[in-house]
Structure formats: C-alpha cells, structure tokens
Amino acid sequence: MEYTGNCVKGQHGSLPNEKPIGKEGKLPCIRNKMVKAFEAELKELLRNLLENLMREERAMYLETHPASANGYHTRDLLTLASPVEDLKVPHIREGDFHPRILPS
Questions:
Q1: In terms of CB atoms within 10 Å, which of 55, 65, 68, 87 comes out highest?
Q2: Structural domain of 59
Q3: Cα(61)–Cα(66) distance, rounded to whole angstroms?
Q4: Which residues, 6+ apart, have CB-to-CB distance to 32 below 8 Å?
Q5: Distance between CA atoms of 87 and 95, rounded to whole angstroms?
Q6: What does the pLDDT look like over 41-82, one tens digit per residue?
C-alpha cells in the first residue's frame, strides 16, 4: 500500500472500478468524496433548520402583532459548521421583526 496524503492508495483505500486520473495515475480517494458529500448535506440541513426556525419565529410574532408577512430577503451567514449562502430570511410588511437567531 502507498500513502498519499490522508488517503491510502491500494486495495482498501481506493475505488475498485475507477480509472486512474492525473499525471501520476492516482485514484480518487473515497474518504474525500465522503467528506464532500457530508459537507454538502450538512450545509443543506443547516440551511433548512435555520429557515424553518425563522419562519416559525415570524409566525409567533404575527400572532401578537398587527402586521402581515411580506416574503423573504436573502443573506449570507457565516456559521461554525460552514458558510450558508442565500439564506431566506422572512420579513413582515410593517414593524421591526428581526429573527433572533441571526446576528444584528
């Protein structure tokens, strides 16, 4: 077995049916593919969680304030897990609603 970075190239560390790539003929590492897939899923899960929390907070706000929902605007948010781009932030037609989960 040959070690290439964090991955092992050989019978257990590479995908069996993939063709060599690059000048040195290295096989792609399954670990890197799994990490990238996990990061993409985590980012989507985080986006959905934040958007659902903000929608619910707006609904609770509207129960006690005489205003109406007025769509969304988008913003980017830097989190410890990963940056979240184009996050849908709900807003209201009149008033000072701001989701508490977001920094001011």
A1: 87
A2: 2-92
A3: 9
A4: 7
A5: 21
A6: 999 999 999 999 999 999 999 999 999 999 999 999 998 888
